[in-house]
């Protein structure tokens, strides 16, 4: 499965959209952004969507806006899953906030809501949840903790386009604010980088839009010391096309996932809990292989047989060199579940263009692995 194949699914409409922008002569902050933001906020079910340059920036602007609004200040703490792509934590540290890493549940791979309350201190101002792999990370208990301690709930929705909670709320409309990535490989992917913030908070929405436009709410007038982080018109138009097919593409991912769950049978392999369909959009299909050596052997075995697999993520954030000398990581944190997942996770191919015949071949290879 290649990104070229995914793009080809909607090739005619995408080419028409790109040509329309090229011929229009208007390439930034125009009608295409307005239209996509309107459609995306309606899809998410929230009042505001603000396009920006990428998913990391989206999260950075959420925390920065809260600082500008006086809700947070440098040195405050944000609870965050230890098992995540590093971008979630980068957005926190970029704003001089302190990440407090909490282990995942081994059966869900998402933040363990039973471990959050003991991590809350007088400096805690937010809980950041990550709907990792496309699986819902929110629980009622997390919502109750946010109310009990007056904490903001920030969602990292980089991998969860179209995922819903049990009450029907879409990820991106569960917390106080959310960051979304439209990196090309995502369920809703652009032809380059792109991102968005969604929220129901009008003050936050105004602040984020200004921060991502040099800090300006009015031309040549700067309320904040911001940055240039805008979604361009071509990417907005492409995303607007692909948004129409997101549910259909996610349904294809679920068909693949159901086959995997029904047919994978190898004592070396375990799978995370099967969730109801609406609670997992299967951005990735993670399997857990017993032992790092076996995981690495399986990765190579698949490669030798023409199947591409990826380890998400082979070095945990707290083990990365960039955080080796941080006060919150000195001495280096011991997070055995996260570290084991880094050693044992392998993601199988999944997406809207892979066929069930191809999936059957992958499963046969996997079940024959010793």
Question: What attributes does this structure have?
Answer:
370 residues; alpha/beta; 3-stranded antiparallel beta sheet; 12 strands; 38% helix; globular
List the helices and strands and how they pair.
Blueprint (H helix, E strand, L loop, with lengths): L2 H7 L1 H14 L6 H14 L3 E5 L2 H14 L8 E5 L5 H8 L3 E5 L21 E7 L9 H10 L2 E5 L20 E5 L13 E5 L2 H10 L4 E3 L2 E2 L10 H11 L2 H18 L5 E2 L14 E5 L2 H13 L31 H9 E4 L7 H13 L2
Parallel strand pairs: 2-3, 2-4, 4-5, 5-6
Antiparallel strand pairs: 1-7, 6-7, 8-9, 10-11, 11-12
Helix pairs in contact: 2-8, 3-8, 4-5, 4-7, 9-12
Task: Explain the overall architecture.
- With 370 residues, this protein is of the alpha/beta class.
- It is 38% helix and 14% strand.
- It contains 12 helices and 12 strands.
- A 7-stranded mixed beta sheet has the order 1-7-6-5-4-2-3, with helices on both faces.
- Helix 4 runs parallel beside helix 5 and helix 9 packs parallel to helix 12.
- The radius of gyration is 21 Å and the shape is globular.
